[in-house]
Design goal:
There is one protein chain. This protein is mostly beta strands. It has one domain. Helix content is 0%, strand content 49%. The protein contains no helices and seven strands. The strands form three sheets. A three-stranded antiparallel β-sheet has the order 1-4-5, with no helix packed on it. Strand 2 and strand 3 form a beta hairpin. The radius of gyration is 17 Å and the shape is elongated.
Length: 68
């Protein structure tokens, strides 16, 4: 898994002062299952063109499904 914080200081919700960020903005992971299947996970709070989108896609040898 690879994680990264792109915006290292953000305004505090309470005071508005800039505070250090200790959470990641993005993560990438490769998933390996016991049956031999592999998967990819891409998680981002800063991706452009995505406005609060939550989407899952599963692709298999018999078809695919997408949940948005």
């Amino acid at each position: 898994m690879t994680c990264r914080t792109f915006i290292e200081r953000r305004p505090s919700a309470e005071t508005g002062a800039l505070v250090a960020v200790d959470t990641e903005d993005a993560a990438l992971a490769t998933l390996r299952h016991e049956c031999g299947a592999v998967g990819l996970m891409d998680i981002s709070k800063v991706a452009t063109g995505m406005c609060d989108e939550l989407r899952f896609e599963i692709h298999g040898d018999r078809g695919a499904i997408r949940f948005t």
